[in-house]
User: Fold these one by one.
Assistant:
Number 1:
Amino acid sequence: MLGNLRRWAQTLKRDIIALWLAARDFRTPWYAKAVAGSVAAYALSPIDLIPDFIPILGYLDDLILVPLGIALAVRLIPPPLLDEFRAAATLRSERPASTLTVVVVITVWAITLAATAWWALPLVSKLAGG
């Protein structure tokens, strides 16, 4: 069962990327672009319709609305185009992560941590009586 759930999640991830690609392609009909772009933006956005911190209800949008939106968008996109977008999405997800991006993210976190420590150290030493 866990294997099926993992495959379903990977399929959803691939389809979200495929919808993002479809929304940006000139061959996709305008109505399919609108739905695909909205679903991809909502799925990739950190802002939810129902915040995740609300027990049970917070995850309903992720478990129900996103898959329903994906299903609607998939029906609106012509099958040959959808196959092309899915293949491109699979290739994108199989690509290794950019080393430069990893270095930039780690550097930003290190600078943030150092700045926080530099700011907090005098406050902590005052509280400690130093």
Number 2:
Amino acid sequence: MPAIRSSADLRNNYNEISTFCHNYPEPVFITKNGKGDLAVMSIEAYEELTGRFDLYSQLKEGLDDIASGNTRPFSEAMEDIRSHRQK
């Protein structure tokens, strides 16, 4: 179940919310006037989340290359790399 706190809680209990965010890798949802307003998480959780987005983007790019035939055999690629290193 997601942690939901009010904007007043964020203002008055910042340290408690910060501790929760560092102990659990999930966001705390902050409401304003009873409606969702913000999602707060630790920097570590944020970096892990954005790292996943980057990985998924790279995987999709690779799968798109495969689907469009924009690939070549591994042995050919390695031969090309080796020939450039020797120059």
